[in-house]
Design a protein that fits this description.
With 235 residues, the chain is of the alpha+beta class. The protein folds into two domains: 88 residues, Arc Repressor Mutant, subunit A, CATH 1.10.10; 96 residues, Winged helix-like DNA-binding domain superfamily/Winged helix DNA-binding domain (Arc Repressor Mutant, subunit A). The protein is built from ten helices and seven strands. The strands form three sheets. The protein has a three-stranded antiparallel sheet. A two-stranded antiparallel sheet has the order 1-2. Strands 3-7 form a two-stranded parallel sheet. A hairpin with a 7-residue loop joins strand 5 and strand 6. It starts with 9 loop residues before the first helix and ends with a strand. The N terminus and C terminus are likely disordered.
Length: 235
């Protein structure tokens, strides 16, 4: 099976003509229907199986669909190792008025714990507690409830403690295609140190330097889409 090609290749859509071009255009319609009705991320393997087509054809059909969505309110996005048809971020607030989804905000403690799991997985509760310096039972239970983390076996050590890792829902929540999209851990740490220094300067009445916009995936870091912050706050 060919690997997922998330890069847009205009030539795959624009330079193909005749019967081949018509065939790929029809395939693009089929892919659009599948992604629209799924409402969730579908892998390349899923799309190949559902359409009965080879991976290179499906990738070419996705390229065509991406191009046709350039002027639409929806787009094909790569998330959780697959593809999803979603509304563009600029229409998120408008769509939220219609759907009124149940939203939640992760507390700082929950975000810190989630970040440790994301970067150190598989990791046990005692290991998380050693890093944070506090008990994390309640926070871990909350993250499990929101399906942002999962149990992934037991450590082969005394007591055989449960190990935890992140879920596909974690990737979707923070708009990540894979864990490789997480910001570099050392770079993130340096940014947090700079922000802390800036807060201290501002508290002391000194003028600080703005930190700029957060990078993709840096919301271990923020509340993230598609469940933006509201009144319900996780511990």
């Amino acid at each position: 099976m060919e690997s997922i090609d998330s890069e847009l290749r205009p030539s795959a859509a624009s330079e193909v003509t005749g019967d081949r071009g018509e065939d790929l255009s029809q395939l693009a319609r089929s892919l659009e229907a599948l992604l629209f009705m799924s409402g969730a991320s579908l892998s390349l393997e899923d799309l190949c199986e559902l359409t009965g087509r080879a991976a290179h054809d499906v990738n070419a059909g996705l390229d065509i669909l991406r191009q046709e969505c350039e002027r639409r309110a929806v787009w094909v996005t790569s998330v959780a190792g697959g593809f999803q048809l979603a509304t563009r971020p600029e229409y998120g607030e408008l769509v939220a008025r219609l759907l009124q989804p149940k939203r939640f905000r992760l507390s700082r403690a929950a975000l810190e714990t989630l970040a440790i799991v994301a970067y150190k997985q598989p990791v046990t509760r005692p290991e998380v507690e050693e890093i944070r310096g506090v008990n994390v039972d309640g926070v871990v239970d909350t993250l499990l409830q929101y399906e942002l983390i999962r149990e992934c076996g037991r450590r082969r050590s005394p007591g055989r403690p449960i190990q935890y890792g992140t879920t596909d829902n974690f990737l979707i929540h923070f708009g990540l295609n894979s864990l490789r999209d997480l910001p570099d851990f050392d770079r993130l740490g340096r940014r947090e140190e700079a922000e802390t220094e800036e807060e201290e300067r501002l508290a002391g009445g000194e003028e600080g330097i703005g930190g700029g916009e957060p990078e993709r995936g840096q919301a271990l870091v923020a509340s993230g889409e598609p469940t933006p912050a509201t009144d319900e706050q996780a511990p």
